[in-house]
Structures are given as C-alpha cells and as structure tokens.
Amino acid sequence: MGHVVTGKLIRILWLITSMLCAFCLVSCSGGGPGGGGTTKTVYEQEPADDLPPDDTLAAKNPSYVDYMVELRNIDYALYYVNGSDSVISLTLSEAENETEKARLDQLYPTMQALAAANNPAGILPSIDLLDRFTKTTDDAVYAALERAFHDGDAVNAGGKQQLLADILAGLKAQPASDGRDLALGFIAAAIHQGGGTADAGAGTTFMATIESNFLANEFLSKPLGFYAGDATLELVFQRDRLLQQSFGWPFQQQITWSTPDIELSAMAAIATVLDDNPDLLAAYDKYQRVNERLTNPTSNLDLRDLLPFKDQFGSPAALRDALIASDAWQTKVIDRNASNGENLGVAFWPFSYSKEGVLMASMPPGAVDQTDMMDIFTAAIQSGEVSLVPLSDSGWYDYQVFALETFLLPDRGYEYANLMMSGLYKQRLKNAFEALITQRRETHIKQLETGCELTCGPMEPPTPRLRVEPAITHFLRTARGYAMLVGALKDVLGSDAFAGVPIGADQTAAASLEASCAVFYGLHLLSCLDVGIPCGLDAGELDVLTILEPPEELTEELLAQYPVAADPALSEADALALIACCQHAEDWLAGLWDSDFLAKDPRVIVPVFKRADTNNLRCWAVLGVKLVKLEASYARPPRLVQVNTWGSNPITLEQARQQLAAGGGASITWDPLEKLMPVYVFAEVEIGPDPLTRAEFRAICDTGSTREEIITALNALGT
Predict the structure, then answer these.
(1) Cα–Cα distance for residue pair 640/41, rounded to 1 Å
(2) Measured between alpha carbons, how far is 112 from 121 in angstroms, rounded to an integer?
(3) CA-to-CA distance for 532 and 336, rounded, in angstroms?
(4) Cα-flanking dihedrals φ and ψ of residue 287, to 5°?
(5) pTM for the full predicted model
(6) Structural element, H or E, at residue 660
(7) d(CA 2, CA 394)
(8) Quick one: which H or E segment has residue 633?
C-alpha cells in the first residue's frame, strides 16, 4: 500500500521486536497503564520562520473558458465579466496597530461568541467556520446511527444488545471448556457495559475480571467526544470499546488475564455460534460493514476471518498459524495495524485504521521525542510518502481526510491555476488542515485506533468577490464524501431502514446528510463563480439530491447569473440542477450567522499516540477560535465588457461572450479585498495516561483568553 512507509521485511521484523518488548513491559510491570497526571508538555505549532514559498504569477496560466460570463454590478455600473483566466492573489495581513493586534490575538470558545464580539458583516466565512456546520452534522448523524444500532431494529431486531444476548444463549448450549467460559464472561460483560443484564453462568468469574480490568483502564474505557455526557451513548462507547479489545496473542493490553490460547479458543467459540446461525452471522457482518463504511476498514482480524479455518478451532496453535498465513492477516494486521502489537489478534469488532496511524506505527522507537506527530504526518503527505487518495475499500473517514488534502498540496486543487498564494497563506491552510483533521478524528474517536509506540444583486465594490474562503476542491470532495456515505448506508442498511434513523424529533440522519451534501456542492459552485472557473461536477452528479427545487426553464438571465450552468456539455436538466444548488447555498449563506451550529464548542482534544515508556498520550487539540486578516487581490484581472444600459439595444449575453473572447474592452481599477476570517487554533500536547473528556479539556481552556495563556495553563498541570 502506498502509505506504508518502511520496507515490508523491515516493518515485519520491527513489528515482532516491538511486540516482544511490549509483552516484556506488560509482564514486568504487572499490568496495563495506570492512572497519573494530566498534562506534561505542549508542543507549539505556529512557527513563522520556514514558510512555504510564494506562488509566482508566471506559473499561473489558467485556460480561458468562453461560456463563463457573469453579469455583475460593480461600482455602480453593469459589466459582463469573464474571470476564467484571471488570477487572485491570497495572503494574510499583519495587524495595523496594537488595538487590532489584541483583537486578532483574542481567543473565543465558539464561532457565535466571536461573531457577537465582532461585526459579522466584515467577516468572510472561512474553512474553519464552515467546519462547524460539518462537525455538527457529522456528530449528530454518527450519534443517531449509534443509538439506532444500540437497541433499534435498523440492522438486527433489538440491535447490538439483542445480537449479544443471542450469542450468549448460543454459547451456553456449547460443551463446557475454558475458552467457552471465557467467551461467556466476555459477551456477558459487553451486554452489561451496554446497559443490559446477563447471566454469564460458568463465565461469571471471567466477567468480573474483564469488567474490572477494563473500567480500571481509562485509556480504553473512558467515554470521549460526543459520547461523553449522554447516558445512552456512554453505554455504547464502553460496550463497543470492550468488544474492540483483541484476544489470542500475548502482546495486547490484557483485560482477561488468561492465556492467549484460551483467548483464541474463546473467539473460536463465538465464531461457532455465528456459523451455526446464519441470521446472527448476517447481522454481525452487516454491523461490521457499517463500521467499515462509516469510519474505515479495520486494522485487525474479526470473527469472520476465523470461519475459513473451522477445522483448526480445536487447536489454538494450528489456528494461529493458519491466521498468520491468511490474506486477512496481511491486509489487516501487517498493512493496516497502527498499534504495533497492542491490538494484534482477533477482536469482536476491531478498531478502524487511519493513514496517520499507519504512518506513526512505522516510526522507530524514540522518534516521537524528535518532532511533533502532526509535522511528521503533514511532511509525509507533502513528500508523497503518504497518499490521502481513498482506497477502493475506504470508509467515510478517508474521504473526509482526502477533502483536506489541498490545504497541504494546493497544486492539486481544482482552483490552483487561478489562485496565487503567498507562503503565509499556505501556512494558514496547513494550520487549517491540522485543526480540521483533529475535528474529524474526534467524530470517529471510538472507532479509530490510537497508534501505540512499542506497544447579480447588490452593488459590489471593485475588488475580487469571495463569498466564502475559496477552498473549491475541499468543498467538492466533502460533498462527494457525504454522497458516498448516503449510498453506502442505503446499500448496507436498506433504504427504508436508513430513512427511519431519527436525529432529534423532527429530522432523520438521511435528510441531514443530504442537506449537508447539497450545501457543500453549492459552496463549490459559488466558489467557482467567485474565482471564475468551470465547476468540477460530473454529469448527473446532483441527481442524488432530492431537496433541490430547479427553476422551470433555463433563461439568459439565469445563465448570466450562474455561468457554471452554461457549459454546452450539460443537459438542460443538469444545468437547472446546478442553478438550484447555487441558490440553495446562497440561501444557506444568507442565514449563516443565525445558525445554531455556530454555538457549538469546537474545542476538542484527541489522542493519536501512546508512549511505551510513560504511557503518556500525545494528543491533537483545538484550543479555540480567533480572527486572521485575509487579503485578496487580482494578480491578473478578469476580462470586462460594460453593458450599454442607456441605449435602446443593450448588449446581449452572446455578444458579450464574443467581445470577451476577443479580449474584452472595459477597464476598471481593482482594489484589494480585505476580510477577517475566523480560524481554529491548533496545538499538539502530551498528557498523562488518562484521556481528557471534552468538559475536562474545555475547563482548562476557559482559564485563558489567548493561545499562550491556555498553553501556560496546560503546562502548569504537568508533572
């Protein structure tokens, strides 16, 4: 796989060595990680010394597109404008005085608080601000699906709890053995963690040991992210986290304190129950496929991987050898495992891999001390060592991260030829990547594995027009990620079951995802109009959106307002859908500052790596939001033709296209556009063995109003 960093042989040898070291550490210390302090070190992330190079105008040669002609009211005059071969320069401006500097340094807990303290009319919707809409939708949809799968009928009658109860009943019908008894205790413990009651029978002692060891290790069991604070979701988190623990190898964190052979026999006993009951196996398979599409494919073996080797179920050693030689072992454990042994083996519902996790797992011991994990990850993306392009079996998380790729590699953006970025603005995009991937990981915090070490309208001013920060490719990839997820969930769950998953009292997960999809398709189209380039949509791509209300007919006035729809390759239906999508996004932006999602607190912290020497957690964190100054100016202006509004025969759209293709004719003085933009503030921190909930972390953030004050407060907690 392209994102595996070291050679395969070196990787396998180092993996084995690391696992043996982890085993020795666990054996000698008498257990897994214990409790301990909170924050140890904060690694700063905003150096301005080694900025990327500025783009040059000579390198920008966008193609002229004759149909991209828009009618605009600029400085009290009407013009036909074609900006397809224009170039907009983007940079960040310094504060003009101490008062403005203090304003830009001020941190706010929410976008709503930032807007209340500043005039929203002068604020450009940034990537970070739009992420509050994305994050709110993502968390709400994920939470709704978790509730539906917990005890609802979307996949299995009675949900995951009933599936576990049926497996428990099947285990009780099996002949007594150490492996069967451990399986009884494990499944009964999971039912109990999920809020149910279960009689473990002969596995009662195992059940007590498993629950005690699991709950004592907060790194494994402490509800985080949107799960914390919600009674049902906390049960979901703890039950599923228990079921994610690996059995059958001597290198993982022990929760059973049994032998690896008995653990592997326990997994074989559970797999036998599924194999004997096709309905249970189908439900288990569907839940696993949902995990793989909702987040990512797994980084460990699951019960389905055991079934081809039923003949070896009576011999743990033979079964282990067969699994190591299997294709599933190569794909999941060797290529994807981000834990270097701690989760090696077989899990009921394994963790999902991430590309940053695979990269971190490949680092040699001690590398974590040399630099920040985020710097390692972003450098690997920029060098080509890690590819963010989704794989054929990628889930939603890979698509979400791929949508962020052009923040680190602007030249891969659809808009790159028309935007000339300064090094300072490229640094701003890198900061956005760091903060947004932190937000994405926090949504998937339960399922993602943590890498482990060793173990035409109003008059416009004569400036470039930006309705949102022009992250054109990001918007399109985000929309396509939502479209992929809707299609995948319909395929796995069935259209009717998916349509019935509620979010609150008056909305469904399906409707929420479609609404988000429509907004980001629309933002892509509006940004294309602002920059002056054709859109990147495929024919029929908007057919997935049922909420659009296309105009009845395609008029010259509409084409002059939305020239992205004038592409001669488009059918009339597709052109009308594009216009409807633009209008949908315009309506959404008009109500942006009254949106409830801006009141959502973006301050989150997520563990990405666990050290073997101290058990401390290296974390990515968003400390709050602040303002930056964006300056956009034309490095190469668009072509203009003024409309003859005082004559009896005003110029037509087709005449304007001909004159603009010949070079235009009108000329105006373009001023720079200056806008404030709200942005996330990112930091990489190292805390103790116990993770922080949102509430615990935000309480620390509330002690300061600037980045430096919060970092000081975090450092003061370290020991």
Answers:
(1) 56
(2) 14
(3) 41
(4) -60, -40
(5) 0.85
(6) helix 653-661
(7) 14
(8) strand 617-636
